[in-house]
């Protein structure tokens, strides 16, 4: 690699279903956040290659009671990010409720509370368009068969200019069943270019699909279609679903995801140009690029979304999300450094997948090691705290207070079909109630666990292969728990969380 080139993926973690917009010299990106809170992550870049996480647009999922417990594959699906009328707008589909939008004068907010634009089951992947030529506003969305019984089609609406409501009952504007060979048409992004209405939409499924482009002189069709990006003879499976953005100098670029198992959907950047026939050409004549010349933008220092955290004053960085809406008292601020998590009492201590009080961040896509120091302050028998890899299957390593008052290092796991965890290694006494735990994440998201009581690292248990949560990437998580009982159960403190490349 040279300073003039970049290598894909540019975001090597689960920034699923990305969309992008430029405002002035700045680029902004959002992504699916499903049932985690806060939701709707907001990333910023000046060069389309180096990105930082600057906040979230959704503090809590609504209705709040629906997301008081984990709903890992529900919530915020495939948002669209736009800038109109000096405001940022994000539209997304909740497959169980309908199409929502929030907006804000600045990317860091304040963002409005979610507004339900169209209620219904299975309404997903919405995208608005404000047509500067006519003053009309439109909305397109896809369908989730799991909720509606409908898939492989895109529905279009006229929309109120203020984004608060729709002006008609909607019409199917692209029916994938009528296009030979097309299936699972979804994720539309709507644009106006060169006198055409354009819909960039993926099809074919996340593992092996392709990126399509559709164009029509009128919003409601008829549309003609073309495949504009597909795997071909590259190693990038299913390159699709993302957004088009143009730089101030007029260069065109396309950001999309690639499904990578437990690592989720990593983000790639493709060059884009308009061919002599007026159709977009993505990547290397329709094949994704591994490396390419950087966009012609001012050079920027290397940057990536934060992962490490010293938890100053007990506060955690914006890279962390809870597995459900946050409740007061889970994490407490204090005068020193370190994350102090309350040992939340639960009937589900045997299954981390059911717990809302896990503080998580994305599993890194490159071989890495995650480690953190842990102290268990609880005197409650059965109280525990640790570092986990979480998906359909999970595994964790940490500390647990025994019935005799001693504290042990424990390492547990559960398979995807198992209803409760079991030991992955024999418990080991932790005389001082503290330990440094480590998870090394290798190729294929194969995880090796170890712990250090002060005399050097000791391997623990067999290799654990991380799994996604259905189509949501696996997560790293910190937690503190206690069995059901009366009174406060104490806390655990985590310090010096680090993720390093291997």
Question: How is this fold's topology laid out?
Answer:
Blueprint: E1 5-7, E2 19-23, E3 26-30, E4 39-45, E5 52-58, E6 77-84, E7 87-94, E8 98-104, E9 115-119, E10 123-130, E11 137-143, H1 145-148, E12 153-159, E13 171-175, E14 189-193, E15 196-203, E16 210-216, E17 224-229, E18 240-246, E19 252-259, E20 265-274, E21 280-282, E22 291-293, E23 321-322, E24 331-332, E25 339-342, E26 344-346, E27 359-362, E28 368-376, E29 384-390, E30 394-401, E31 407-414, E32 422-423, E33 428-429, E34 434-441, E35 446-452, E36 457-465, E37 475-483, E38 491-501
Parallel strand pairs: 26-37
Antiparallel strand pairs: 1-22, 2-3, 3-4, 4-5, 6-7, 7-8, 8-9, 10-11, 11-12, 12-13, 14-15, 15-16, 16-17, 18-19, 19-20, 20-21, 23-27, 24-25, 25-38, 27-37, 28-34, 28-38, 29-30, 29-37, 30-31, 31-32, 31-33, 34-35, 35-36
Concise account of the structure shown:
The chain is an all-beta fold. It has one helix spanning 145-148, and strands spanning 5-7, 19-23, 26-30, 39-45, 52-58, 77-84, 87-94, 98-104, 115-119, 123-130, 137-143, 153-159, 171-175, 189-193, 196-203, 210-216, 224-229, 240-246, 252-259, 265-274, 280-282, 291-293, 321-322, 331-332, 339-342, 344-346, 359-362, 368-376, 384-390, 394-401, 407-414, 422-423, 428-429, 434-441, 446-452, 457-465, 475-483, 491-501.
